[in-house]
Design goal:
52% of the residues lie in helices and 0% in strands. The chain is an all-alpha fold.
Length: 64
């Protein structure tokens, strides 16, 4: 079985949103989401769960 991992950018696209819109939906500051996407910061468990729920994917499918 192939394991899928979605980036922040891919999650936003799957939801038909921009990264700032996804951040707003997840109650995360847009700059923080950009930093996570660029690898400068790590996702918290709560952020991971929020993003997975919004994108309707399993938490383990989110590239953290």
């Amino acid at each position: 079985m192939v394991e899928r991992k979605y980036s922040i950018k891919a999650l936003a696209a799957m939801c038909g949103m921009t990264i700032p819109q996804l951040a707003d939906s997840a109650n995360i500051k847009p700059q923080r989401l950009y930093d996570i996407s660029a690898g400068r910061r790590k996702l918290t468990g709560a952020e991971l769960l929020k993003l997975a729920e919004i994108a309707n994917v399993k938490p383990e499918e989110v590239k953290a």
